[in-house]
Amino acid sequence: MPMYDYACGDCGEFAALRPLAQWREPADCPQCGAASGRIIGGAPAISALSSTVNRARAVNERSANEPRSSRSGHGMNCGCCSGGRASGKTRTTPDGAKSFAGARPWMISH
């Protein structure tokens, strides 16, 4: 059940746990018992979350516009950092045909 904020005319603001189906209905004030209307009290308590959740949220926010690469150097298939070695298992013959080193030629891949 979510917690909603209410304001009593005599006692002030209070919070109450209410079912979703009752979000529009007024709640009884815990001090005087008067029906009190719902208000938008403040922002959600994000600081009350665990440190793990806060870290995960911060990583998600950061990665939305600043993706972090897990590779060092210039990235995949960089000619200056690869050392001249062919990448992967694909081999190209002088006539342009491709073969796959160590692959089984009779298998069909998807």
Structural summary, described in words:
- This protein is α+β, with helices and mostly antiparallel strands and 110 residues long.
- The chain has a domain at 3-39.
- The chain has one helix and six strands, in the order ββββαββ.
- It has one helix spanning 51-65, and strands spanning 3-8, 12-17, 27-28, 35-39, 90-92, 98-100.
- It has a four-stranded antiparallel β-sheet, with no helix packed on it.
- The radius of gyration is 31 Å and the shape is rod-shaped.
Strand order of the largest sheet: 2-1-4-3
Note the total helix count. Answer: 1
Largest sheet: 4 strands, antiparallel
SSE pattern, N- to C-terminal: EEEEHEE
Distance between the termini: 47 Å
Q: How confident is the prediction overall: mean pLDDT?
A: 76
Per DSSP E runs of 2 or more residues, the count of β-strands stands at 6
Shape: rod-shaped
Gyration radius (Cα, Å) is 31 Å
The fraction of residues in strands falls at: 15-25%
In percent, how helical is the residue content?
10-25%
Give start-end ranges of low-pLDDT stretches.
none
Name the structural class: alpha+beta
In short:
This protein has one helix at 51-65; strands at 3-8, 12-17, 27-28, 35-39, 90-92, 98-100.
How are the SSEs ordered, and which strands pair?
Elements: E1 3-8, E2 12-17, E3 27-28, E4 35-39, H1 51-65, E5 90-92, E6 98-100
Antiparallel strand pairs: 1-2, 1-4, 3-4, 5-6
Characteristics:
6 strands; rod-shaped; alpha+beta; 23% strand; 110 residues; two-stranded antiparallel ribbon
